[in-house]
Structures are given as C-alpha cells and as structure tokens.
Amino acid sequence: MSRVKRKEDVFYGLFREYGEKLVLVGEVYQRIFHEYPSSRVLVPSMKEYENVCDEQARKIFMELSSSFITPFDREDISVLTKRLDDVVDYMEAGASRLDLFAIEEMRPEAIALADITVKAIHQVAEVLDRLPSFKKDHSVMELALAVDVTEDEGDAVYKNALADLFRGDVPTLEIMKWSRVYDRMELALNACEHACDIVQGVIMKNA
Fold first, then answer.
1. Domain residues for 20?
2. Cα separations (Å) of 145 from 5, 31, 127, 204?
C-alpha cells in the first residue's frame, strides 16, 4: 500500500509543479500583451519557459515509462501532459508572432484574450493542485467544468476580435498578422479546456 501511495504522490507532485510553472509563464504572457511594445524584450523568455515546461513534461513521461503503478489510466496521464504542454507552446507562439510580424501597436482584444487565458491557467493549476483528491472532492469536477465557461468567454472575445479586424478600416497586412496572432492565442485557451476535459474524463471513469 505504501508503494502505491508513493507512486501516486510522484505523479500528483509532478502535475502540481506543472501547474505552478504554467502560472509563471502565464504571468509573463499577460505582461507582454499588457505592456507591449515596451515588453517586446520579454518575448524571448517565453521560449525559455517553454523549455522549462518541456522538461517537466519529460519528467512525467519518464516516470510513466518506469512505473507499473499509476494513480489513474496511463493514457490519460500521457494525454493530460501533452495538453498542458500545448498551453505553453501556443502561448509562446502567440507572443513570438508579435515580434516576428513586427507588430507595433497592441489591440485591446488581444489583451482581453491574454487575461482570459491567464484566468483559465489559474483554474487549471487549481485543478492540478486538487487532483490527488479527485475521487472524493466534488470541487475538482466543478473547477474543471469552470474552465469550459472561461473558454466560452474567450471564444466570444476571439470572434469579436476577428470581426473587428474585417469590419474596420484595417490594412490587409495587419489583418493577416493579427489573424495569426489571435489564432495562436485561441489555441492556448483551447488547450486549457482540453486539459480539463481529460480530468473530467478521469473523474467519470473512477466514479
């Protein structure tokens, strides 16, 4: 029994650490959009954070490959890790496009999307923090479902942002640039929802 408990603690601890790292990356991401263009100097740090989170994912996969006992389905552990990795990858991609496309002026919709994504990231981190008690703590499911609501909020902002691009007197090149930035920002938010979808599935399987 102690061996089972130890293995569960290892995976839960790694996921909790991943959540903490996501929050740190999210804060930098949010700052980049709020303070742009002066925050352009922070954009390269997103790649560094991405590498840190990649290493965290590798730790989980290495533990998975060497463990006979896991706290829940091995496939769910693998997919959850990949979805968490997606969150960081897409945030980095969205931020890096600001510099890549030589964007000079921030749009308010992008700031709103960044804020909503960080809200979702905090919710994901809380889900990961409470994951060890998912079998008896109903709030884990409630928190995971809350991310769906946050994603819906972000989806509305994303659609309005695209509509404003095409409705307004925006140069074609700017439309192309911002469409690609918004696309990556939306994918980052979607990845938060997808991660929590995995947790919802784990809870249902173990109900």
1. 2-205
2. 27, 27, 10, 13
Collapsing DSSP states into helix, strand and coil, what is residue 124? helix
Structure tokens at 180: 């690609």
Please state the domain count of the chain: 1
Give the distance from CA 56 to its chain's centroid: 14
- Identify the CATH number of the domain in which residue 91 sits: 1.20.58.220
* C-beta neighbour count of 39 within 10 angstroms: 17
pLDDT tens string 9-46: 899 999 999 999 999 999 999 999 999 999 999 999 99
Return the amino acid letter for 42.
Answer: L
Find the range with the poorest average confidence among 36-45, 50-59, 165-174, 188-197. 165-174
CB-CB contact of 76 with 34 (8 Å) = no
For the full predicted model, state whether its pTM sits above 0.85.
yes
| Spatial distance between the Cα atoms of 204 and 207, rounded to a whole number of angstroms | 5
Q: How far is CA 181 from CA 1, 16, 21, 93, in A?
A: 49, 29, 23, 8
